[in-house]
Every structure is written in structure tokens, then in C-alpha cells.
Amino acid sequence: MTTEQSGPMTPQAAMTLAAIAATAATTRPSGEQVSQQCNRAFLGVNQLLTDSSLATRGTWILNWIAMSPANANLAYLAQNRDGSNQFAVVLRGTVGTVTDLLEDLDVGTVVPFGFAGSPTDPACVSTGAMTAFSQVLTMNSVGVTLAQALTGALAKAPADPTVHVIGHSLGGCLATMVGAYLQAQSWPGDPQFGLYTFAAPSAGNAAFANHLSEELSWVVNQRYVNCWDIVPLAWTSLDEAKTWYPDEGPKANEDVRAVISALAGLPGPNVYAQPGPAVPLNQHYAKHDPAVVKGSLQDFLGQVAYQHANDTYLDLLGAPALPSGPLVTGISPDTGGPGTQVTVTGTGFNAAQGVALDFGTVACPRIAVSSDGTTITAYPPAGVGVVPVRVTTFLGTSPAVPTARFAYEGTAPVRGTAISEDHGRTGTPVTVTGVNFGSDAKVFFGDNQAVGQVAPPDTIAATAPAPTKGVGKPKTVDITVLSNGWSSPASPADEFTYEELEGPEHG
User: Fold this and answer.
1) Which of 143, 221, 335, 497 suits a disulfide with 407, CB 3.0-4.6 Å?
2) What is the pTM of this model?
3) Calculated CA dihedral for residues 422, 423, 428, 434, nearest 10 degrees
4) Quick one: CATH architecture of 415-506?
5) Is 173 exposed, middle or buried (0-12, 13-18, 19+ CB in 10 A)?
6) Phi first, then psi: what are they for 5, rounded to 5°?
7) According to the model, what pLDDT value does residue 117 have?
8) Which listed CATH number (3.40.50.360, 3.40.50.2300, 3.40.50.1820, 3.40.50.2020) goes with 11-166+189-316?
9) How many whole angstroms separate alpha carbon 479 and alpha carbon 462?
């Protein structure tokens, strides 16, 4: 049951608070204790809460933060110092691919949710959601749990505060459970509660959903859903995604439909429900990633990840994006030995945010960061083989990317950067460009080798070979180059679509 909202919390501010919970979600490759990662998250979250350029206007302060022992979940408590007497309990779930996130919920079994329902009509939630909920309520920071931190904060606040419970993705799923739990407890100051979820999968059955939306009193209860985000369809209507995406794509092929069928079958006999109607966003597919629109499993999962992302929800709500974490775009040279001077290029290398550099899983102690935060001069530590080069700050860790791999005492990594044409038929001429193509370079369209001629600087003139046809064989394939023992990594930039493959068996 929703009553009139008391307080200036906006969905833009709520989504910003939810996005901030993902700060420092990945561990440093060379290793961190949970306490070290939690401290890094504390510094990053606190920095973002004070950023006046965000929808939260820099008026929030961090009261408490903790993560579970395996970093599966994180929660923080923040207080608004703008005079509105508002608090926010913000949840973050497991970080990973969308497929991994959905499988983590262990929805094949359910357990009673003891803070709602009755023995004759029990409110049930998935076992995975209950595990995460239990972790959130028991994890602590210097011996203080969420409930203890909230009790202490409310005891010092003026009477009649508002506590908003907020989360994106699995954090939103957790927010429905944590919000219901908090309403079942007694608190100093007689607080009111609000609930904001974004991109949340369903946590439990219809009795749980009804308890949340009809039997509890909220100052605001809003569920925001990007209409082209697959996660909120879990676990009520995942099969709908088999008909996605609208023009210009990507269209679900046979491989995509098989993945969706496997995910849709995870609940078994358990029937899930979402708590109340959603506020729809992006109904006409105006916002999508044009770089991943081809009919391949790779592009479909890329679009799924884009539609689910924090930044996409912020943009759909008209909220400013959060400052980006570090991103490595390249290294030079990309081969050498320990102590070789290497220049790492990218963005977000802010020395004030505790820049650290790793070559694979080994920390690099000798670094110098440029004043503009775009380059790092480094001297690689002892190592062997081929390793990704990644940067860590208070805001997070850069992803491993093909453009930043360092080969210890070996040949330089091979990488494709573009193709032209990206569609055609057997015999279509295609130019492949990249880096470090040797004279032995061979070009493959999927699993079929093409006739190609290497020409400097790092281009190959190839002719599209006949495709492999048959059930389950996609019409969009990756073009890869094999040279000097290297295989170029696949990416949306190297996808070629065969126009002669038609019919339902090709998606």
C-alpha cells in the first residue's frame, strides 16, 4: 500500500544511490582481503556521495558499509544532510554476467519468509535470495551489523525519519526482502519506509509479492523496469525475451533461445510473482547499443548486458552518469621482460584515488601516474606468459581487454581492429585490419579458413569462404586471425554476417 511521499527523494537520486553500491565491486587481481576491499569501497562510495554533480547533489554521507565474506553482497547506510531527515539502506547483489546473476539465485527451491504471510498461505522466497538476505543481515563492519548501524543512526536523528530501501538488479531483489524485514522491527524515532527497486528479478511467490505491495505501508513503493531488460522477467516471463529485440536487433537466434529456455526452466514447479506494477522505461527501444545488433549469441548477450547496466537506467531516468572507474585502452610496448619501461594508456587514472597496477595477478610497485590521469609509466614485475594489464582505484578495477595484454619475452599479441565488409556472401572481398599480423597469418570466418594475403601495415585482403550450414549454425560469425601462435580475440568489431543463410534454423 502506497501513501503520499514525504521527502524529496527522486527516482534519479534513488538510482544514483543504487549505482554507487557497485563501487569497487571487483577485487584487485593481485589480491585483497575482504577488509581491504571493503575499505576501498568505503573510500569510493564516500567520494561519490559527496559529488555535487550527481543526482544525489553531494548531500549524503556514508554511515556504514559492509560486504559478505566472499564479496557476494554489499550494503551501505547513508544519511541525507539536506534537512530532509532521510536515510537510505542500499543493497548490491552479486557482480557478474547477467546469466551468472540469474543462476546465482537458486530458484529451483523455495523457503518460507518468516516476516510475512501466514501458515495457510506462506510467503516464500527462493533459496538463493534467502541466502543473500541472511548474509546482508549478518555481515558486519568492525562488529556492527546493518540493524545496529540503523538503530544508532535513527536514535540520533529527529523524530519521524524516512528510511528508503534501494537496490538495482539482485540488489533490488534483496531490497524487497530487507524492506519487508525492516518494517517488521521496532526502531527509534518511529520511521516511515520507502522502497525503490530497479531491474529487480522477483524474489518469491504471490503471497510474498502481495504482502510487499498490499499489506505493508510505504511512503513510496516504486519498481522501475527497462522494457528491454531481461532480468526483471525473472522469474515470471523469461520466455518473452525469445522474441527480442525489435529492429534494428539483435534478433534471438537458436542459440539464444536455447539459453533462455534453460534459464526459464530453473524455477521448476515454483511459481514466482513481481510485487505490483512496474514503471516502464525505454518502451520504444529508443535507447540501445548499436554496436551489438547482429543476430549472434555474442551480440544478444552484449545487448542484454547494456540494457541491464546501471548507466543505462541512469540515462533513461535523466540522471547524470557516475564518474567512470579506470579503463585501460592500450599498452606500449606489449612485449618484453621484467623491468621493461611500459606506457599504459587509458582514463580514470586519478592519483588521488589510490592508483594501483597489476600485470596479471602480480602487483607492479614501480609506477608513475600522469597529472591528467591518462597514462601510467610502469616497469613490469617478474612474470611469465601472457597477462592482462589492469588498473585499480577507489572506484573499481579496469576490465581485462584485448588491447592491454603483455607478453613476457614472447611475440607481440595479435589483434583484429576492424573489418570491411561486415556482411555478404561466399566470395565477398573483406579487408581485415589489426596489429602484429605476421607473414604466416591465416584468416578464419567462423570455423572455415579463407584465402587471404597479408599486406603492410597489418591488413589482410581475404575472400569470404563458403559458410557451414545446418541446424544451429549461425549466419553471423567471428573473423579471427591466427599468427605467430596467437589467435585474435573475438569482438563485435570482427563479426561477418552471411546473407545467403536464411530460414528459422539460422535464427
Assistant:
1) 335
2) 0.92
3) 10
4) Sandwich (2.60)
5) buried
6) -70, 135
7) 66
8) 3.40.50.1820
9) 10
